[in-house]
Design the sequence.
């Protein structure tokens, strides 16, 4: 069922926010996001943007509150995090202004 998800996207992947955790888990859409249990901020969950179908998790607080490993800009439509990801599957990059950006260059804006 996941054979079409293994190819890397050609450009930035839109990060779709799910308010409903069940819908998030059913959709399994690469790069989509939801907070665990709907608790915002907290444990941000996302389907790996590379399309490998892995469910990732990151502890997130809202900028500039300390405590999480990543800081979120508080936006659901154009979410940004202040730190990049280096994921076990090999994908590395950023969530910035609603898009997943692969690569190590620091993108503008938070
Ligand atoms: Zn992956």
Sequence:
């Amino acid at each position: 069922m996941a054979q079409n998800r293994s190819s890397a996207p050609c450009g930035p992947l839109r990060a779709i926010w799910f308010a409903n955790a069940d819908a998030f888990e059913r959709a399994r859409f690469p790069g989509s996001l939801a907070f665990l249990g709907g608790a915002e901020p907290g444990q941000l969950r996302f389907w790996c943007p590379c399309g490998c179908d892995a469910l990732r998790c990151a502890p997130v607080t809202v900028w500039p509150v300390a405590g999480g490993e990543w800081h979120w800009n508080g936006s659901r439509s154009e979410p940004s995090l202040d730190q990049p990801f280096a994921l076990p599957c090999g994908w590395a990059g950023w969530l910035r202004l609603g898009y997943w950006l692969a690569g190590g260059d620091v993108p503008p804006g938070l």
